[in-house]
Design brief:
643 residues; mainly alpha; two-stranded antiparallel ribbon; 10 strands; globular
Length: 643
């Protein structure tokens, strides 16, 4: 499929947002702007695409806090390309000048309230455009309404309850009117869900993209249904649904904005709404025929093994442009920088440290590697056939591992007999790395011990754990010579079909604590596992787990679904938000970052777990601080807990 290419050229001619206050009271000059912007279709289209430009960028580590701001990918102290993300991950968030401030639009954040204001301007004026068909006008309105709802949701996910801005304020409004309060959590949920319901019911969105040459990346009905499902699953999760940790957070009116007092019935009711929304989206995609997960069927590599083909299917679900997994992707994002930072120093001795473009900085902590299953599809601590205690013991690689590990070499026990997603997603010492100019299925692998050709050599190009996020690299991206890079770029997925299946499974399990609901939930988990080359949940746990009845319990299936989500969407920015909404971030983020002993050449010494960093995540870090400047400017803005 061809990729969308009109965003940036069009936006060069768009009005540049400048106001940093979220109120964005409409200035007198806006009348002139509106007269020009909506005088004809061609001008209105520029304003329309400007509304799209406010959607937070995915796949860019300088713009998306979820990529490097958590614990999936770690960088060295010398790394300087993404200071906001590194500082966020290292515990440097602050209220006096917040990192990734999407409230005001600074330090890596876009001004989403300015975006909401521009959406409101568009919606108030698009009816004045004379040379546009009613069908196109209605479609544009629907798309901008979705954008406005998504920007509200993005802010809620970051800050908790926010001031809803459904219409713009005017210069004639009293000052007290402009000093708005934060809405309650319940009001925020109701606003987002009702807005999505209204948009979907009007049926003005495209069913599918009409022109793939120019419209890929535009919002369709499927995107809207998926968006509503994601909103509801997020709002039903423990961080937002009756979270008593924020009891007492009361504004000047005496209103408790988090609505923490929820009965179990009320909590379950929101999960049932979420399950219904997920099922509506699944039914829609079934109707239009988008119900098959991506499988690599290419013939350019000849008669490759099923193991290699499976690894390409897993990698391709992220990096193959507009593959069948993709529901919505960021057409502005072509993450070549994200790729090159994950590229090891060298793959063979003849090029050892001659390439200066493969940056090598993105490192995978051991705890992320640990979350992948064994080949039997269960966690490494649960598999009764897998020697957990010998995971750091060096072992010689036999021919039974030929498509995953370099035969005859030595690597750690933890890399033997693991699931295919590990080998597709993680690069490691003596692990086969297919592609990047080498189509050998068995020959290419990093040699990363001290004195070897993949070893760190340069301070600003330093992998701190000895493992790489291979998944984000397209296999056709190649570093050659000393400075040459041939990128294979891809629009970064915002929504993929497996997420919908796993959200539905999660919502069913939480909403209906019955064997029938668990059976239905497992069916959708198994659809994701099947593409990953694993047996189903019931078969895997029954035959291989030390807790064979785990999937029969609501709490056990909850753990299974969550781990499946973390594995399937590794390095895609999901873990950052999921750990927060599940209220697991305190446990996970405070575990130390560890890797290998990089100074050692002896395998027995190299494969020792070595401390890299310990971060300090506290309850206040679940939500972003509102800037001190905003708190001083608006006396009615209540600061988040702990800031």
């Amino acid at each position: 499929m061809k990729s969308i290419r009109y965003f940036l050229p069009i936006l060069l001619f768009c009005i540049t947002p400048a106001c940093n206050n979220f109120l964005d009271v409409v200035p007198d000059m806006i009348a002139t702007i509106e007269d020009n912007a909506f005088s004809m279709r061609s001008q209105a289209e520029k304003f329309f695409f400007m509304c799209y430009s406010y959607i937070p960028t995915s796949g860019s580590y300088n713009d998306d806090p979820a990529l490097l701001g958590g614990d999936e990918i770690w960088v060295s102290a010398q790394y300087s390309d993404a200071p906001n993300a590194k500082n966020l991950a290292w515990g440097g968030q602050r209220s006096n000048n917040p990192l990734f401030d999407f409230w005001r639009g600074i330090n890596g954040g876009k001004n989403l309230y300015r975006g909401i204001s521009d959406c409101n301007i568009f919606l108030a004026n698009i009816g004045r455009v004379p040379d546009i068909t009613p069908e196109e006008r209605n479609r544009w309105i629907a798309e901008v309404e979705v954008i406005k709802a998504w920007l509200h949701f993005y802010l809620i996910r970051m800050y908790g309850p926010i001031p809803i801005k459904d219409v713009n304020l005017s210069v004639q409004d009293d000052t007290e009117v402009t000093h708005v309060f934060r809405n309650t959590m319940d009001e925020c949920v109701e606003y987002c869900v009702n807005k999505m319901d209204e948009i979907i019911a009007r049926n003005h969105l495209m069913i599918t993209v009409n022109d793939q040459a120019t419209e890929l990346g535009r919002i369709t009905k499927g995107v809207a249904l998926m968006m509503k499902a994601k909103m509801l699953v997020t709002f039903a999760s423990p961080l937002f649904n009756g979270n008593t940790d924020y009891a007492g957070l009361t504004d000047r009116r005496g209103i408790e904005i988090f609505n923490p007092d929820k009965t179990e019935e009320q909590k379950v009711a929101l999960w049932r709404q979420a399950a219904d929304a997920c099922k509506d989206a699944i039914d829609f995609f079934n109707e239009i025929g988008q119900n098959e997960l991506y499988r690599f069927t290419g013939t350019q590599f000849g008669n490759i093994s099923e193991q290699t083909r499976l690894k390409l299917s897993i990698r391709g679900s992220l990096v193959e442009r507009w593959n069948s997994d993709v529901i919505w992707a960021d057409s502005r994002s072509w993450p070549q920088l994200y790729q090159i930072q994950a590229y090891p120093r060298d793959f063979n001795a003849s090029q050892a440290n001659t390439q200066t473009t493969n940056r090598n900085n993105f490192a995978v902590p051991l705890k992320i590697v640990n979350q992948f299953y064994t080949k039997n599809g269960v966690p490494i601590r649960e598999d009764k056939t897998w020697d957990y205690n010998a995971r750091f013991t060096p072992k010689t690689i036999g021919t039974d591992q030929i498509y995953y590990l370099q035969v005859g070499e030595i690597t750690a026990g933890m890399f033997f007999d693991r699931e295919p997603r590990l080998y597709a997603s993680i690069g490691f010492d003596r692990g086969i790395w297919f592609g990047h100019g080498n189509t050998s299925e068995t020959g290419q692998a990093p040699h990363a011990r001290s004195g070897e050709y993949t070893q760190n050599q340069i301070a600003h190009s330093w992998n701190v754990t000895g493992m790489w996020p291979k998944k984000i690299l397209h296999w056709l991206t190649v570093c050659s010579g000393t400075t040459t890079v041939t990128y294979t770029r891809y629009p970064f997925p915002i929504f993929r079909l497996p997420e919908l299946y796993l959200m539905y499974a999660e919502a069913l399990n939480e909403a209906y604590n019955t064997p029938e609901a668990r059976s239905e939930a497992i069916h959708y988990v198994d659809m994701v596992r099947d593409r990953a080359g694993l047996k189903g949940v019931e078969e895997s746990w029954t035959n291989y787990s030390t807790d064979p009845a785990k999937f029969m319990r609501q709490s056990g299936l909850r753990d299974i679904i969550r781990q499946e989500k973390l594995v399937e969407f590794v390095f895609e920015g999901h873990r950052f938000w999921d750990l927060r909404r599940w209220k697991m971030a305190m446990d996970e983020y405070n575990k130390p970052i560890t890797g290998w002993n990089l100074d050692a050449s002896d395998p027995a010494l190299y494969y020792r777990e070595t401390w890299v960093y310990t971060r300090n995540f506290t309850p206040r870090d679940y939500f972003w601080p509102i800037s001190d400047e905003e708190i001083l400017r608006n006396k009615n803005t209540l600061q988040n807990y702990g800031w």
